[in-house]
Amino acid sequence: MPNEAMRLKPITVEQLLTGVGKEAGVSPWRTVTQQMIDQFADATDDHQFIHCDPERAASETPFGGTIAHGFLTLSLLSAMTYETIPPLETGDIGINQGFENLKFVAPVKTGSRIRTRFVLAEVKVRPSGWVQAAHDVTIEIEDSKKPALTARWLTLTKIDPETIPSGAT
Fold first, then answer.
1. What is the helix, strand, coil percentage profile of the chain, to 5?
2. Which end of the chain is less crowded, N or C, counting CB atoms within 10 A of the terminal residue's CB?
3. 27 Cβ partners below 8 Å, 6+ apart?
């Protein structure tokens, strides 16, 4: 996880609500390396040659070399979110709730740079202090017309219920 000192300044629920329907941010570019792919393969026991054998992948696939696991690309959303989306004031925990309409559109070739474009699609503030945010995310591949993936990402953040503005629930 990035250094806490580098964390973005927290925003209020009111500020979050004003962002619905708007682009919330675009993450910095991130290079997907063979080392990242190999470590992910070790963690998931997915050592398919298209990910882990550069010579074979170059000669036996249309990709010209190895490609990242789709789930590796997806999992990088957490880091890219941390770099891009401000946390909520008084938020003490955040939880992934799931994805809707997740599609892997194009492979991420080893050495490619990717970034995520976040559009805040919906916010639901519950009286209990749970805030559900839905972001439409697109992981873009530098110099590619097609993105790596698209999805609607649902997250929950627990905030102090006392900080919920009136009329927000």
1. 30, 35, 40
2. N
3. 80, 81, 83, 84, 115, 116, 117, 118
Alpha-carbon distance of 109 to 89, in angstroms, equals 38
Under 8 Å between Cβ of 75 and 153: no
Q: What is the pLDDT of residue 1?
A: 45
Task: Fill in the amino acid letter for 104.
Answer: F
The first and second tokens of residue 101, run together, are 């309409």
Check: pTM over 0.85? Answer yes or no. yes
**Are 53 and 63 contacting, i.e. CB atoms less than 8 angstroms apart?**
no
- CA atoms 162, 164, 166, 167: torsion sign: negative
Instruction: Name the residue type at position 136.
Output: D
